[in-house]
Specification:
Elements: H1 4-18, H2 24-37, E1 43-44, E2 47-48, E3 53-54, E4 57-58, H3 64-68
Antiparallel strand pairs: 1-2, 3-4
Bound molecules: iron/sulfur cluster.
Residues 36-37, 40, 42-43, 48, 59, 64, 75-77, 82-84 line the site of iron/sulfur cluster (SF4).
């Protein structure tokens, strides 16, 4: 389930990154997560695609860059070889 606070946090961090004031630990975590997303069968461009399915799981519909910038966020495939965890 997508939480409003997570959306706000993710886009706020994305804006911080654009202006160069994002915490470097968050940036590193985001890059590691996005590297996994780039190999994931549920990815469609910038989105975790809810129309795609892998092992009976669908994408969450989130935009990946802000999603990757929320420390507490969960990946739908976190239990598989493709996903990432908190
Ligand atoms: S399921 Fe996880 S790894 Fe795959 S695109 Fe979505 S967030 Fe990224």
């Amino acid at each position: 389930m997508i939480k409003f606070n997570d959306i706000l946090e993710g886009w706020s961090n994305a804006a911080r990154d654009v202006v160069g004031v994002l915490d470097q630990k968050k940036k590193a975590l985001s890059l590691a997560r996005l590297e996994k997303c780039n190999k994931c069968p549920l990815q469609s461009g910038l989105i975790c695609d809810p129309r795609k399915t892998y092992m009976d799981m669908n994408g969450c519909g989130c935009v990946l860059v802000p999603k990757s910038l929320v420390n507490s966020n969960e990946c739908p495939l976190r239990e598989t070889k493709y996903g990432w965890s908190k």
